[in-house]
Amino acid sequence: MAEPQPTADWEPKILAFLCNWCSYAGADLAGTSRLQYPPNVRVIRVPCSGRVNPIYIVEALRQGADGVLVSGCHPGDCHYLAGNYFARRRFAMLQRYLEYLGVEKGRVQFSWVSASEASRFAEVVTKVTEDVRQLGPNRRLRMATLEGLGDALAGPSAEAEE
Amino acid sequence: MSTLPVAVAEAIKGWLAAGEIEVFFGYTPGPTGLRATPTMARTPEEVDALIWDATCEANLAVYIPKHKGHKVGLMAKGCDARAIVGLIQEGQVARENLRIVGAACAGVIDPRRVASALGLYIEELEGARLDTDRLTIEGAEMPLSEAMVEQCGACTQHTPSLYDVLIGEPGGAPRAEPEGAADPYATVHAMEALSADERWARFTAEVPAATCAMPAGTPAPCATAPSALPTARRPSGPTPRSPRRTSSSSR
After folding, report:
1. CA distance A20 to B191
2. To bridge A98 with a disulfide, which of A103, B39, B69, B203 should be the other Cys (CB 3.0-4.6 Å)?
3. What pTM, to 2 d.p., does this model score?
């Protein structure tokens, strides 16, 4: 199957789950420091990276995100002591599973960013955006009905019901 | 089915008589003839009723922790011996409180595999007859290697690592084709060699079409032919599907 080619004006949509105590603060600092990073990320603030259920990530891809970034405190620095350890184990599992399914490597990424690492946050977002741009639009795990809800609701879903 | 060799049965009776063990866990013929039933033997008569053959699939090591503090004896295949070693390492049981009858095992029968090969339910299987390397059942005949638990084909430990008495030869040659499984992880390596596109094609070939529906105009991977890899068993016919959610409501 040929890789779907992105159109000229296509921009990746990336969903970022940021932990309230480290990565979100890091993003905040990046903003107040006037650091430039790609505007492709949509941030969701979560109490802890351990709060992110793997199903959220799959659902994000299903709902049309081209990439997902999950970022939390460095291991050992979790505000809730062990939340990011749980997250790390879950995501290790999820990544292998997505790899097994055939979701391209790099669509779902994880990183540790502390509250003081504004420049690192900018780097991470830049890297994720570039990776996803290389991969092109997310065509897998995507709910067909979301592509132009108005007229397509009848179209693709009727086909899908075949 | 075959009873235990006389020497082995005598050894078990000796342990019971001498009080070295209080009870012996073994197998008796199962109702379908394809899977032996675990049983407890306390008397010489009960020991005489014990069997050992390729239907002895159950792992009797599970009864050890349930009889903590008691001296017990049991039958163990190579794989069961690994479980016993695990229990000993975790301090669940002391080796001196165990009497183990090891069995050089060439693989055990998987009733599910037999049933699916014959297109029947497990409950419908009756009158199985076991020969040295063939299984006769329901008018069909199949080599034992095709009725075996698939993992047995990749077994590396046919002879138990610890035993007091052994049935069969130590390191005895296994009966069925494990040589064919030179690489026990062949399927894993085959999967690892696939590209993301090939994996996706394989995955979408196994799930209902709606799950992987594409926006109009894009090449649909669903239409791609499934790869040569073994695919998961799935009942034919329409697959029930959960109601579609059209709004963006979240779970």
Report:
1. 38
2. A103
3. 0.56
